[in-house]
Each structure stands twice: as structure tokens, then as C-alpha cells.
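Look over both lines:
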Amino acid sequence: MSSLPLSEVYPGVWFLDTEQFGVPGQGGVYLLPGQPAALVEAGTSLAQGRILAALEELRIRREEVAWIFLTHIHLDHAGGAGGLLRELPGAKAVVHPRGTRHLVDPSRLVASVREAVRERFPLYGEAIPIPEDRIHAAGDGEVFPAGGDQIRAVETPGHAPHHLCYFAEGEKLLFTGDAAGLYLGGVLIPTTVPPSFDLELSLASLERMEALGPRLLLYTHFGPGDPALLGAYKDLLRRWVARVEEGWRAGVDEGALVAQVLSEAEAEGLIPSGPARGDLAMSVRGVLAYLRSREGRT
């Protein structure tokens, strides 16, 4: 019996709980055995040892891994890519073209994350720069052979302008990153973090994901989910933004508004155990940034 929190969530698709932020059930990485093999997400740099151990557990040789599919460059998804590429000699990181420069030089990204997550920053590890020749900038609709399937990159902005989902075309599996929210402990949670959340783009991306006709959603946070969650997340996003906007237009101070929204969310069961309170605080601030930007205010 493996000591790793590793499970086969669909035939030939393995999910590793990286115990992100030191808590089980918060974030993970998908492993796709085959010729070639691939990872979906890299987690934070703190997950590297666990990911390499999972490859060994699944008897995936390091040189067999061709791709690390990154849904976006936020450190809980891509922070570990630089370290992993040092250990996976034949692999490249696949990322949206707008994310490439931040992987080559992560200094601005790290500063942005530090500002957004504040006291939680040490939980995000470090970001090792990636040589440009180890990065593949994926075009929308580009297809990659991996894990015995064809993996299509699907541009899905809204959570971030550089967000991609990955669709396994044969099995109709959709790796959602953060474009479909968080799904923690059976609870769907908005992720509308600064600096670039955009409601209209998010809703359009969710429509695009629904049009793919996925059989199963595979969340980074956390695990498999029913495709009906895409429609549920559209409704949740609209209500979440409206809730924050109501307080903002009433002139509630930002700190007080964050506390008010979190209190309401907790009462409604939107905050499961773990660090979700911090995530939701960031998500309130992300909506405020969106509202100010939409109206040309700072």
C-alpha cells in the first residue's frame, strides 16, 4: 500500500494530493502515464519531492515525461515547474503565451503573489526561473499527445488573462485549473483573485467549457467533479460579484467589506476547513479590483 495520497480518479489518470499549504485536500497534481507521460500542474515548489515520488510509485521514468501542462502561472499551479524541469530532462512546461516571460523571470509574479496573499506567502515556496527553451507557449486549440490521449489547450481567461484549460479529447476529461472555481470538500467556492479577475470573460470561458461536452471535470482544487458544476459556477459568480458590489456601492470600507462578506459566506457554508478563508478574502479584493477597473476608478 502506497504511503502517498495518490489515487486513480479515472482509468489512466492519477491524482496526487500535494497537501498544498500544509493541508490535505486543498491542491493537487494530475499524472498521466503513457508514451509520452505528462503532468497537469506543478503545484508549489514545496511539492516537488512528493511529485517525483509519485512518478516513481507509478513507474513513470523521469525521462518519459514530455509535458508539464500549466493552467496558469499562479504559484500554487506553476511555482514548482522550474524545480521539476531540472529533474525531468525531456519535459517542457506548456503555458499560455502571456505567461512565458513570468516563468523565465518570475520576479514580478512573486511580488504580485506576495502582495495578494500577505502573511501566507511562505506557504507558496519559491519560483525557480525556467530557461526559455524549456517552455512551450501553447496556442488556443493546440493539441499534444500525452497519456494515451490527445490533450487540447483551451484558452479560458477570466480568473486570469493567461489561463488555459486542458481537454483530453478521447475521454472528454476537462482539467479546469481555476477557471471553474474551487471545489473543496464538495463545496463550490469562487476564486476571483486580484489582479486580473474579469466577470464577463469568466462567464464566456465557462460557456466555452460547457460546449466541449466534458464527461468529467478534474479540478486542481480539488479532484473530480460533475460537469453540471460549470453551470452552477456561473450562477455562483454572478451572485458573488453582486454581493461584493452592493457593499462597495454603499461605501463600506474595504476591510469591513471583506469581513462582512466572509461572515456571510461562512454562514452559508462557503468556507470549508483549511485555508479557504484566506482564499475568499483575496477573492473579495479581486472583485473590488474588477469593479474599480470596470468603472475607471482606482
